[in-house]
Write a structure and sequence with these properties.
This protein is of the alpha/beta class and 356 residues long. The protein is 38% helix and 13% strand. It has 15 helices and 11 strands. Helix 4 runs parallel beside helix 5 and helix 10 crosses helix 15. The structure holds flavin mononucleotide.
Amino acid sequence: MDAEHDSEEADVLEVLGAHGFLSTPKSCELNLEISERTRDEAMRFENRITRMLGVEYPILEAPMGWIARSQLASAVSNAGGMGIIETSSGELDAIRVEIRKMRALTEKPFGVNIAQAFVRDPDIVKFVIDQGVRFVTTSAGDPQRYCAALKEAGLTVFHVVPSLKAAMRAVDCGVDGLVVEGGEGGGFKNPREVATMVLLPLVCEKTGVPVVAAGGMVDGKTMAAAFALGAEGIQMGTRMVSSAESPVHDNWKQAILKAQETDTVFLNRFGPGPALRALRTEKTTRFEKEPPENVMGEFRHALDLYFGGDMEASIALSGQVAGRIDAIKPVAQIFREIIAQFEETIASMGRKYATS
Ligand SMILES: Cc1cc2nc3c(=O)[nH]c(=O)nc-3n(C[C@H](O)[C@H](O)[C@H](O)COP(=O)(O)O)c2cc1C
């Protein structure tokens, strides 16, 4: 690999790992007339993302270590979106079982994520191909590493990007599409984070591939805003963590409901290891001022937080959009409300601003 590629790889490897442009009071709820419409009456989507992925709605569940497993992913697929199974936990034997469960829980498409920085098994590509899935997102690394092999096996590949430079590189590598992730999103992040409001239109204007917007996506208004900026799909992380089917402990869900928009921290901008966005707790507020030597070490006790509910045991990766989430709802209801509100938002803007 040449020096230019070396430095590009370093840049992309920095990229571990997307907006809250339309603010609404936390207590604002959709009116019932909209939210209770049946799926048969709901708006139909037809764009490059729905065609490529074979889904009814261009809405992806974010891949999240230990969380994006069959219970949540099947709820997303059954609601008409793209359920994604994680591999960032590194527990490939468990993932194999989860994928088998998916086949029993849904007949709809689902995909797998390869978070490259967390890959321990050198045969991860073979593992994913062997599972028979048709869609994969790659993240947290150089897209060149796995793209060709995955595409040769016939999979559709989207790469997650936090900058225009990373997006151009992914397109050069031949990806089918991009997940454009702004710095307000939860999870591991590029230390030089850029908000979805800036990054999304930039990438959409400079690349011709289909784009899924991530970071701050939570409702029909944010989805409509993302589409206005050029996206053809959305991916939700924090909203899915707080859904009824999410397997995490209720303490984490309640902490998301209580959080204000200012209640996340951006940690470890200067390394070592990845930068990240997480919920504000006593521990993470302390880390803002006094960064730990090794932030990744904190994830040794992740499961005590994720499933034991001890919010100080580790770090609760979550996005700023926690400040807009005020109820735990089933995924199917979240989807119905998003689609209805998307439709209402674009129609009302047309009525309000159309000149003729
Ligand atoms: C708990 C948690 C774990 C995550 N783990 C992963 C992961 O394993 N792979 C990945 O590509 N992104 C991961 N992310 C980032 C999400 O995929 C998604 O892009 C991000 O959450 C979007 O922002 P939002 O939280 O505002 O919806 C994670 C996010 C959260 C909140």
